[in-house]
Amino acid sequence: MQMSIHYYVLLLSGQTSRLYEGFREKFIDIEDSNFPFKSSFIAGKPSPNGASLREFIRQTDERFAHYFKQDPLRLVVIGEKEIMAIFEALTAHKEIIIGKVEGNYLMTSLHDLGMIVWPVVKEVIAGVNKNAIRDLVKAEREKKIVSGINGVGLAVETEINPTLYVEDDYHVRGSILKSDQAVIFSKRLNLLDVLDDVVDFIIEKVLKMGGTVIFLNNDSLKKLKRIALVLSG
After folding, report:
1. Angle in degrees, 0-180, between the axes of helices 50-70 and 81-90, rounded to the nearest 10
2. For residues 154 and 159, what is the distance between their CA atoms, to the nearest angstrom?
3. Taking the model in full, what pTM does it have?
4. Fewer CB atoms inside 10 A, N or C side of the chain?
5. SS3 letters for the chain?
């Protein structure tokens, strides 16, 4: 399963389990017959006892399986240390977990949760590349780089295992126009083929091709028009 900027977040506590879909730092709260899932093992007490807690966590994992079967995405788990340990021991989804955030965040807003979780996911996507800027400068010097949304959009169609550099908050709404089997991005919106975020489209394409995406602080790539692709050739 390839990496993606689209992922699940499972928030665990002794009283309630919640499930979110994450798109970069934006979270959607899943609210249906499965989630939020509230514990009902011991009425009138703030949390279930050890045995019931294990059963509650097991049932939470079973409920999550319903969504994973429909849309198999990676997972970030949030919870206090004891509950996280129980989840890891019981879950059938251990192999898809890409990050853990320890603590009680049950009352944390979706905005603040996104600010906490997204850096964890970014680090995993980038493979903790400590030499990112150095490699980018070297590629510039060797003229092995394409920059700007249109240039990158064209180059990404043919590159193998590319490395994409993009500013963290860079978003472009536009359309895909096909010409000579290439993809060109246009800010002139075609309502039949409009993308909410062309940048995210490119990121997902790079990840599906086995490439690497490096997220950098805003204004880091100003002279490269906020997005750049290192060419392999």
Report:
1. 60
2. 10
3. 0.82
4. C
5. CCCCCEEEEEECCCCEEEEEEEECCEEEECCCCCCCEECCCCCCCCCCCHHHHHHHHHHHHHHHHHHHHHCCCCEEEEECHHHHHHHHHHCCCHHHEEEEEECCCCCCCHHHHHHHHHHHHHHHHHCCCCCHHHHHHHHHHCCCEEECHHHHHHHCCCCCCCEEEEECCCCCCEEEEEECCEEEEECCCCCCCEECCHHHHHHHHHHHCCCEEEEECCCCCHHHCCEEEECCC
